[in-house]
Design a protein that fits this description.
This protein is an alpha/beta fold. The protein folds into 2 domains: 1-110 and 267-363, Isopropylmalate Dehydrogenase (3-Layer(aba) Sandwich); 125-263, Isopropylmalate Dehydrogenase (3-Layer(aba) Sandwich), CATH 3.40.718.10. It is built from 12 helices and 14 strands. A 10-stranded mixed sheet has the order 2-1-3-12-11-4-5-10-8-9, sandwiched between helices. A two-stranded antiparallel sheet has the order 6-7. The chain has a two-stranded parallel ribbon with strand order 13-14. Helix 7 links the parallel strand 8 and strand 9 (222-227). Helix 1 packs parallel to helix 12 (351-360). It binds 3-isopropylmalic acid (IPM) and magnesium ion. Magnesium ion (MG) binds at residues 253, 257.
Length: 363
Protein backbone atom coordinates (compact mmCIF):
# COMPACT_ATOMS: atom_id res chain seq x y z
CA UNK A 1 0.00 0.00 0.00
CA UNK A 2 1.41 3.36 -0.96
CA UNK A 3 1.82 5.69 1.95
CA UNK A 4 2.46 9.34 2.45
CA UNK A 5 4.96 9.55 5.29
CA UNK A 6 4.49 12.66 7.35
CA UNK A 7 7.92 13.11 8.94
CA UNK A 8 9.17 15.90 11.18
CA UNK A 9 12.86 16.64 10.76
CA UNK A 10 15.14 18.17 13.37
CA UNK A 11 18.42 18.76 11.63
CA UNK A 12 19.90 20.19 14.79
CA UNK A 13 23.43 21.33 15.54
CA UNK A 14 27.00 20.23 14.88
CA UNK A 15 27.08 17.28 12.50
CA UNK A 16 23.26 17.05 12.72
CA UNK A 17 22.44 18.73 9.40
CA UNK A 18 25.02 16.63 7.52
CA UNK A 19 23.91 13.27 8.84
CA UNK A 20 20.21 14.08 8.50
CA UNK A 21 20.72 15.06 4.86
CA UNK A 22 22.06 11.57 4.17
CA UNK A 23 19.26 9.86 6.07
CA UNK A 24 16.68 11.83 4.08
CA UNK A 25 18.44 10.83 0.87
CA UNK A 26 18.13 7.18 1.87
CA UNK A 27 14.51 7.62 2.94
CA UNK A 28 13.62 9.33 -0.34
CA UNK A 29 15.23 6.55 -2.34
CA UNK A 30 13.45 3.90 -0.27
CA UNK A 31 10.14 5.68 -0.68
CA UNK A 32 10.68 5.96 -4.42
CA UNK A 33 11.39 2.25 -4.81
CA UNK A 34 8.52 1.12 -2.60
CA UNK A 35 5.99 3.60 -3.93
CA UNK A 36 5.65 5.95 -0.97
CA UNK A 37 6.13 9.67 -0.61
CA UNK A 38 7.88 11.53 2.19
CA UNK A 39 6.49 14.79 3.39
CA UNK A 40 9.01 16.58 5.61
CA UNK A 41 8.34 19.31 8.16
CA UNK A 42 11.45 21.08 9.41
CA UNK A 43 11.48 21.63 13.16
CA UNK A 44 13.88 23.73 15.22
CA UNK A 45 15.36 22.38 18.45
CA UNK A 46 18.45 22.97 20.55
CA UNK A 47 21.07 25.47 19.45
CA UNK A 48 19.36 26.17 16.14
CA UNK A 49 16.21 27.12 18.05
CA UNK A 50 18.18 29.32 20.46
CA UNK A 51 19.70 31.17 17.51
CA UNK A 52 16.29 31.72 15.93
CA UNK A 53 14.07 32.23 18.98
CA UNK A 54 16.26 32.58 22.06
CA UNK A 55 15.00 29.32 23.59
CA UNK A 56 15.94 25.69 22.81
CA UNK A 57 12.34 24.54 22.37
CA UNK A 58 9.24 26.50 21.38
CA UNK A 59 5.57 25.56 21.67
CA UNK A 60 5.51 25.84 17.90
CA UNK A 61 8.03 22.99 17.56
CA UNK A 62 6.04 20.82 19.98
CA UNK A 63 2.77 21.52 18.16
CA UNK A 64 4.27 20.89 14.73
CA UNK A 65 5.92 17.68 15.95
CA UNK A 66 2.59 16.43 17.30
CA UNK A 67 1.10 16.80 13.84
CA UNK A 68 3.76 14.53 12.34
CA UNK A 69 3.62 10.73 12.46
CA UNK A 70 7.27 10.54 13.51
CA UNK A 71 10.28 12.79 13.91
CA UNK A 72 13.78 12.14 12.61
CA UNK A 73 16.50 14.01 14.44
CA UNK A 74 20.21 14.62 13.91
CA UNK A 75 21.77 15.83 17.12
CA UNK A 76 21.72 18.93 19.23
CA UNK A 77 24.24 20.88 21.30
CA UNK A 78 27.59 22.54 20.83
CA UNK A 79 31.01 22.78 22.39
CA UNK A 80 30.33 23.97 25.94
CA UNK A 81 33.78 25.58 26.14
CA UNK A 82 33.26 27.97 23.24
CA UNK A 83 29.60 28.09 22.26
CA UNK A 84 27.56 31.09 23.46
CA UNK A 85 24.64 28.70 24.07
CA UNK A 86 26.40 27.56 27.24
CA UNK A 87 26.55 31.09 28.66
CA UNK A 88 22.78 30.82 29.10
CA UNK A 89 21.29 29.41 32.28
CA UNK A 90 20.98 25.58 32.23
CA UNK A 91 17.25 25.61 31.48
CA UNK A 92 17.88 27.61 28.28
CA UNK A 93 20.70 25.48 26.87
CA UNK A 94 20.34 23.09 23.90
CA UNK A 95 20.06 19.92 26.03
CA UNK A 96 17.09 21.38 27.90
CA UNK A 97 15.29 21.50 24.55
CA UNK A 98 15.88 17.80 24.01
CA UNK A 99 14.67 16.90 27.50
CA UNK A 100 11.71 19.25 26.99
CA UNK A 101 10.56 17.62 23.77
CA UNK A 102 10.95 14.11 25.26
CA UNK A 103 8.70 15.16 28.12
CA UNK A 104 6.23 17.16 26.01
CA UNK A 105 5.69 14.20 23.67
CA UNK A 106 5.73 11.68 26.54
CA UNK A 107 8.53 9.67 24.93
CA UNK A 108 9.13 7.41 27.90
CA UNK A 109 10.56 4.38 26.10
CA UNK A 110 14.02 4.77 24.63
CA UNK A 111 15.28 1.84 22.58
CA UNK A 112 18.99 1.72 21.94
CA UNK A 113 20.13 -1.34 20.03
CA UNK A 114 23.81 -2.23 20.23
CA UNK A 115 24.85 -4.67 17.54
CA UNK A 116 28.33 -5.85 16.71
CA UNK A 117 28.51 -6.08 12.94
CA UNK A 118 30.74 -8.86 11.79
CA UNK A 119 32.50 -6.50 9.41
CA UNK A 120 33.28 -4.03 12.17
CA UNK A 121 34.91 -6.42 14.59
CA UNK A 122 38.18 -4.64 13.90
CA UNK A 123 36.80 -1.43 15.41
CA UNK A 124 35.65 -3.20 18.60
CA UNK A 125 38.02 -2.63 21.51
CA UNK A 126 37.22 -6.00 23.11
CA UNK A 127 39.29 -9.14 22.61
CA UNK A 128 38.18 -11.42 19.83
CA UNK A 129 37.46 -14.33 22.15
CA UNK A 130 34.88 -12.14 23.90
CA UNK A 131 33.13 -10.98 20.74
CA UNK A 132 33.32 -14.25 18.83
CA UNK A 133 29.94 -14.81 17.19
CA UNK A 134 28.96 -11.16 17.67
CA UNK A 135 26.31 -9.77 19.99
CA UNK A 136 23.00 -8.02 19.65
CA UNK A 137 21.47 -6.33 22.65
CA UNK A 138 18.77 -3.75 23.17
CA UNK A 139 18.92 -1.18 25.89
CA UNK A 140 15.45 -0.14 26.96
CA UNK A 141 15.97 3.12 28.82
CA UNK A 142 13.23 4.91 30.72
CA UNK A 143 13.35 8.45 29.32
CA UNK A 144 10.95 10.80 31.07
CA UNK A 145 11.49 10.16 34.77
CA UNK A 146 14.16 9.72 37.40
CA UNK A 147 16.98 12.14 38.05
CA UNK A 148 16.53 13.93 34.75
CA UNK A 149 13.11 15.24 35.66
CA UNK A 150 13.14 15.26 39.46
CA UNK A 151 13.14 18.44 41.48
CA UNK A 152 16.50 20.13 41.53
CA UNK A 153 17.90 23.17 43.25
CA UNK A 154 21.12 24.71 44.42
CA UNK A 155 20.88 26.61 47.68
CA UNK A 156 23.06 27.90 50.43
CA UNK A 157 22.49 26.08 53.69
CA UNK A 158 24.22 27.52 56.75
CA UNK A 159 26.77 29.17 54.50
CA UNK A 160 27.44 25.96 52.52
CA UNK A 161 26.43 25.68 48.88
CA UNK A 162 24.30 22.57 48.50
CA UNK A 163 22.78 21.03 45.36
CA UNK A 164 19.80 18.69 45.20
CA UNK A 165 18.70 16.37 42.39
CA UNK A 166 15.91 14.01 43.26
CA UNK A 167 15.35 10.55 41.83
CA UNK A 168 11.66 9.70 41.77
CA UNK A 169 9.75 6.90 40.08
CA UNK A 170 6.18 5.88 40.63
CA UNK A 171 4.95 2.36 39.96
CA UNK A 172 3.04 3.37 36.81
CA UNK A 173 6.15 4.84 35.21
CA UNK A 174 8.04 1.64 35.98
CA UNK A 175 5.25 -0.64 34.81
CA UNK A 176 4.78 0.93 31.38
CA UNK A 177 8.48 0.77 30.51
CA UNK A 178 8.76 -2.77 31.86
CA UNK A 179 5.82 -3.86 29.69
CA UNK A 180 7.60 -2.42 26.67
CA UNK A 181 10.78 -4.27 27.53
CA UNK A 182 8.99 -7.61 27.88
CA UNK A 183 7.04 -7.03 24.67
CA UNK A 184 10.28 -6.41 22.79
CA UNK A 185 11.97 -9.38 24.45
CA UNK A 186 9.15 -11.62 23.17
CA UNK A 187 10.17 -10.64 19.63
CA UNK A 188 13.86 -11.19 20.33
CA UNK A 189 15.77 -13.53 22.62
CA UNK A 190 13.13 -13.72 25.38
CA UNK A 191 15.42 -12.47 28.11
CA UNK A 192 15.19 -9.28 30.16
CA UNK A 193 17.99 -8.06 32.38
CA UNK A 194 16.58 -5.39 34.67
CA UNK A 195 19.34 -3.13 35.90
CA UNK A 196 19.06 -1.21 39.15
CA UNK A 197 20.86 -0.28 42.35
CA UNK A 198 18.49 -2.07 44.70
CA UNK A 199 21.20 -2.58 47.31
CA UNK A 200 21.11 1.18 47.94
CA UNK A 201 18.16 3.01 46.36
CA UNK A 202 14.48 2.92 47.28
CA UNK A 203 13.55 3.80 43.71
CA UNK A 204 15.42 0.68 42.60
CA UNK A 205 13.67 -1.52 45.14
CA UNK A 206 10.30 -0.37 43.82
CA UNK A 207 11.63 -0.84 40.29
CA UNK A 208 12.51 -4.47 41.04
CA UNK A 209 9.15 -5.19 42.65
CA UNK A 210 7.13 -3.77 39.75
CA UNK A 211 9.31 -5.48 37.12
CA UNK A 212 8.70 -8.79 38.89
CA UNK A 213 4.96 -8.20 38.80
CA UNK A 214 5.06 -7.45 35.07
CA UNK A 215 7.20 -10.54 34.45
CA UNK A 216 4.35 -12.75 35.67
CA UNK A 217 2.46 -11.89 32.48
CA UNK A 218 5.39 -13.10 30.36
CA UNK A 219 6.14 -16.66 31.47
CA UNK A 220 8.22 -17.27 28.35
CA UNK A 221 10.64 -14.45 29.12
CA UNK A 222 13.53 -15.09 31.48
CA UNK A 223 14.00 -12.23 33.91
CA UNK A 224 17.19 -11.48 35.74
CA UNK A 225 18.10 -8.54 37.96
CA UNK A 226 21.53 -7.00 37.84
CA UNK A 227 23.09 -4.20 39.84
CA UNK A 228 24.20 -1.34 37.65
CA UNK A 229 27.86 -1.46 38.65
CA UNK A 230 27.99 -5.15 37.83
CA UNK A 231 26.22 -4.48 34.53
CA UNK A 232 28.87 -1.92 33.56
CA UNK A 233 31.43 -4.64 34.12
CA UNK A 234 29.48 -7.42 32.40
CA UNK A 235 29.04 -5.31 29.26
CA UNK A 236 32.76 -5.47 28.59
CA UNK A 237 33.30 -8.89 30.09
CA UNK A 238 30.57 -10.77 28.25
CA UNK A 239 28.19 -8.64 26.15
CA UNK A 240 26.73 -11.77 24.55
CA UNK A 241 24.81 -12.62 27.73
CA UNK A 242 22.38 -9.72 27.17
CA UNK A 243 19.20 -9.55 25.16
CA UNK A 244 17.01 -6.72 26.49
CA UNK A 245 18.52 -4.50 29.17
CA UNK A 246 15.78 -2.64 31.02
CA UNK A 247 16.82 0.30 33.13
CA UNK A 248 16.00 3.76 34.48
CA UNK A 249 16.92 7.02 32.82
CA UNK A 250 20.35 7.85 34.23
CA UNK A 251 21.68 4.29 34.29
CA UNK A 252 20.47 3.89 30.71
CA UNK A 253 22.25 7.04 29.62
CA UNK A 254 25.54 5.75 30.94
CA UNK A 255 25.19 2.10 29.95
CA UNK A 256 24.09 2.94 26.42
CA UNK A 257 27.27 4.92 25.78
CA UNK A 258 29.26 1.99 27.09
CA UNK A 259 27.31 -0.47 24.96
CA UNK A 260 27.87 1.67 21.89
CA UNK A 261 31.61 1.72 22.40
CA UNK A 262 31.84 -2.05 22.58
CA UNK A 263 30.21 -2.19 19.14
CA UNK A 264 33.12 -0.19 17.78
CA UNK A 265 31.65 3.24 17.21
CA UNK A 266 28.88 5.39 18.55
CA UNK A 267 28.46 6.52 14.93
CA UNK A 268 26.69 3.22 14.21
CA UNK A 269 23.99 3.28 16.86
CA UNK A 270 20.40 4.18 16.16
CA UNK A 271 17.75 4.94 18.74
CA UNK A 272 14.00 5.30 19.02
CA UNK A 273 12.07 7.19 21.67
CA UNK A 274 8.46 6.11 21.81
CA UNK A 275 5.25 7.00 23.63
CA UNK A 276 2.02 5.00 23.98
CA UNK A 277 1.10 5.60 20.34
CA UNK A 278 2.91 4.83 17.10
CA UNK A 279 4.64 8.19 17.27
CA UNK A 280 8.38 8.19 17.85
CA UNK A 281 11.44 10.41 17.79
CA UNK A 282 14.36 8.73 16.06
CA UNK A 283 17.91 9.84 16.53
CA UNK A 284 21.45 8.54 16.49
CA UNK A 285 22.72 7.69 19.98
CA UNK A 286 25.79 9.84 19.45
CA UNK A 287 26.11 13.56 20.06
CA UNK A 288 26.54 16.55 17.78
CA UNK A 289 30.35 16.21 17.58
CA UNK A 290 31.00 19.94 17.05
CA UNK A 291 34.71 19.22 16.58
CA UNK A 292 34.08 17.55 13.22
CA UNK A 293 31.00 19.50 12.13
CA UNK A 294 31.11 20.78 8.57
CA UNK A 295 34.08 18.62 7.62
CA UNK A 296 32.04 16.05 5.72
CA UNK A 297 33.55 13.15 7.66
CA UNK A 298 30.80 12.28 10.17
CA UNK A 299 29.35 8.79 10.06
CA UNK A 300 25.70 9.03 8.88
CA UNK A 301 24.95 5.34 9.47
CA UNK A 302 23.42 5.75 12.96
CA UNK A 303 20.98 8.30 11.55
CA UNK A 304 20.22 6.15 8.53
CA UNK A 305 19.55 3.19 10.82
CA UNK A 306 17.36 5.45 12.96
CA UNK A 307 15.34 6.20 9.85
CA UNK A 308 14.97 2.44 9.35
CA UNK A 309 13.73 2.09 12.93
CA UNK A 310 11.23 4.86 12.19
CA UNK A 311 9.85 3.01 9.19
CA UNK A 312 9.57 -0.14 11.27
CA UNK A 313 8.04 1.21 14.48
CA UNK A 314 6.02 4.25 13.42
CA UNK A 315 4.93 3.22 9.92
CA UNK A 316 4.98 -0.59 10.14
CA UNK A 317 7.07 -0.66 6.96
CA UNK A 318 9.19 -3.69 7.81
CA UNK A 319 10.27 -4.52 4.27
CA UNK A 320 11.46 -0.98 3.70
CA UNK A 321 13.33 -0.98 7.02
CA UNK A 322 14.94 -4.30 6.12
CA UNK A 323 16.02 -2.82 2.79
CA UNK A 324 17.83 0.04 4.51
CA UNK A 325 19.52 -2.27 6.99
CA UNK A 326 20.60 -4.57 4.16
CA UNK A 327 22.03 -1.63 2.22
CA UNK A 328 24.05 -0.60 5.29
CA UNK A 329 25.31 -4.16 5.73
CA UNK A 330 26.33 -4.21 2.07
CA UNK A 331 28.45 -1.03 2.16
CA UNK A 332 30.20 -2.36 5.23
CA UNK A 333 30.76 -5.71 3.59
CA UNK A 334 32.22 -4.02 0.55
CA UNK A 335 34.73 -2.31 2.80
CA UNK A 336 33.52 1.29 2.79
CA UNK A 337 34.17 3.11 6.05
CA UNK A 338 33.90 6.58 7.49
CA UNK A 339 36.93 7.62 9.49
CA UNK A 340 35.51 6.60 12.90
CA UNK A 341 35.23 2.96 11.84
CA UNK A 342 38.18 2.89 9.47
CA UNK A 343 40.62 0.02 9.66
CA UNK A 344 43.48 -1.22 7.54
CA UNK A 345 42.70 -2.34 4.02
CA UNK A 346 39.31 -0.61 3.89
CA UNK A 347 38.20 2.31 1.76
CA UNK A 348 37.73 5.56 3.62
CA UNK A 349 34.88 7.75 2.42
CA UNK A 350 33.07 10.85 3.67
CA UNK A 351 29.54 11.48 4.91
CA UNK A 352 27.98 12.26 1.55
CA UNK A 353 29.54 9.36 -0.31
CA UNK A 354 28.36 7.00 2.44
CA UNK A 355 24.81 8.30 2.04
CA UNK A 356 25.00 8.03 -1.76
CA UNK A 357 26.22 4.44 -1.62
CA UNK A 358 23.61 3.30 0.88
CA UNK A 359 20.85 5.01 -1.12
CA UNK A 360 22.07 3.35 -4.31
CA UNK A 361 22.02 -0.07 -2.63
CA UNK A 362 18.39 0.13 -1.58
CA UNK A 363 16.57 -2.69 -3.33
C1 LIG B 1 21.49 11.05 25.33
C2 LIG B 1 22.20 12.32 25.67
C3 LIG B 1 21.25 13.24 26.44
C4 LIG B 1 20.84 12.49 27.69
C5 LIG B 1 21.84 14.62 26.76
C6 LIG B 1 22.27 15.35 25.51
C7 LIG B 1 20.91 15.46 27.58
O1 LIG B 1 23.35 12.07 26.39
O2 LIG B 1 20.49 11.10 24.60
O3 LIG B 1 21.94 10.01 25.80
O4 LIG B 1 21.56 12.52 28.70
O5 LIG B 1 19.78 11.88 27.66
MG1 LIG C 1 23.80 10.03 26.63
Amino acid sequence: MDMNLNIGVIRGDGIGPEIVTEAMKVLDRTAEIYGHTCDYTQLLLGGASIDAHGVPLTDETVEKAKKCSAVLMGSIGGDAKVSPWYKLEPSKRPEAGLLGIRKALNLFANLRPAILYDELKGACPLKEEITEGGFDLMIMRELTGGLYFGERKTVEENGVMTAYDSLTYNENEIRRIAVRAFDIAMKRGKKVTSVDKANVLDSSRLWRKVVEEVAKDYPEVALEHMLVDNCAMQLVKDPKQFDVVLTENMFGDILSDEASMVTGSIGMLASASLNETKFGLYEPSGGSAPDIAGKGIANPIATILSAAMMLRFSFDLDKEADAIEAAVARVLKEGYRTVDIMSEGRVQIGTEKMGDLIASYIA
